[in-house]
Amino acid sequence: MFDLTAYNTFGLHVYSKDGLIVRCVEDLSKIRDDKFIILGKGSDVLLTDDYDGTVLIDEIKDLEISEEQDSFLVKAGGGIVLDDLIAKLVSQNIGGLENLSAIPGTVGAAPVQNIGAYGVEIGNFIESVEFVDLLSLRKGCFNREQCDFGYRSSYFKKNPQQKLFITSVNMRFSKGFNPCLTYKGLQDEDLLTYADIRNRVIALRRKKLPDPKVVGNAGSFFKNPIVEQAVLDKLKNEYADLPVYAAEDGKFKLAAGWLIDKSNCRGITHGNAGTWEHQALVLVNRGEARPHEIVALAKYIQAEVKTKFDIFLEPEVRVFGKDGELKWSQL
């Protein structure tokens, strides 16, 4: 059995039948099982059971940084810790990802969820994603359009059955100082460098989010719901302080954390699981929590928000069970 406790930031004690640490593309030829899942650091993952197959751990850490007239090109191995990459880029005055500072996880996992924070999504900087098709062991590459990035979504997330192992991510960053400072907390004239922004983002995250090394969690558990104008108008009539952000196609994004808070679910504890006292969007392992306790808490929160606001909260985390990835409706 392969212990997965260190490979999921919830810190849940689960196992797989086998595990393979992948440090280079050639290591993938060592797969001896036709049943496998791919993990980086397991920072946006909920493992609900022991997995009856092999878990592949992405540890490819090659890094190339080159320069063109107006931009920097970065080719980063899928196993690089994303925050380590951001720190290195910022130290070389290469900006773009600083708003994603302190988000746990790897470069290879980032495009799967199209991770985002403080107005920035990583998909905006990705030119292409290189991968190995584990069903044929053939190399492939998708450009940005083929990656089909959406809100916390991508081709890779929508098509898990294809078993694409991300080996590297190619990104382009414009030269010059072009920060994204649209979100509250970043609208400050003192933020004059990418390092300033990175430090501010880290401070903001530490203030409201638990460190997974100390308190087990998977970051934001639910997506911010997207609603139509009619739904927004109805809610605004009753809740004048409702936080709202513009979304695509004339729709609007609501703050899931606010909805959970107003549903009296911030800081609650069910069994050994709970919601974080400073950010209700984060579910935490309060100590020796078992997978079913996390699931039960999440479903309770969904029910409470649905009852109060008639809005369904969709989980952001990817869920894996005994036989592989699951849809939330299967739990």
Summary keywords:
single chain, 331 residues, alpha+beta, Uridine Diphospho-n-acetylenolpyruvylglucosamine Reductase, domain 2, Uridine Diphospho-n-acetylenolpyruvylglucosamine Reductase, domain 3, 3 domains, five-stranded antiparallel β-sheet, four-stranded mixed β-sheet, 21 strands
How many H/I helices? Answer: 8
Beta-strand residue percentage: 25-35%
SS content category: alpha+beta
Shape: globular
Number of domains: 3
> What does the average pLDDT come to?
95
Question: Low-confidence runs (pLDDT<50, min 5 residues)?
Answer: none
> Which CATH class of the largest domain?
Alpha Beta
Cα end-to-end separation: 24 Å
Question: CATH architecture of the largest domain, please?
Answer: 2-Layer Sandwich
If you consult CATH, what is the topology of the largest domain?
A: Uridine Diphospho-n-acetylenolpyruvylglucosamine Reductase, domain 3
Explained architecture:
It is a single chain. This protein has 331 residues and is α+β, with helices and mostly antiparallel strands. The protein has 3 domains: 2-58, Uridine Diphospho-n-acetylenolpyruvylglucosamine Reductase, domain 2 (2-Layer Sandwich); 65-204, Uridine Diphospho-n-acetylenolpyruvylglucosamine Reductase, domain 3, CATH 3.30.465.10; 222-314, Uridine Diphospho-n-acetylenolpyruvylglucosamine Reductase, domain 1, CATH 3.90.78.10. The chain has 8 helices and 21 strands. It has a 5-stranded antiparallel sheet with strand order 6-7-12-10-11. β6 (63-67) and β7 (71-77) form a beta hairpin. The longest helix is centred in the last third of the chain and has 19 residues, at 291-309. The mean pLDDT is 95.
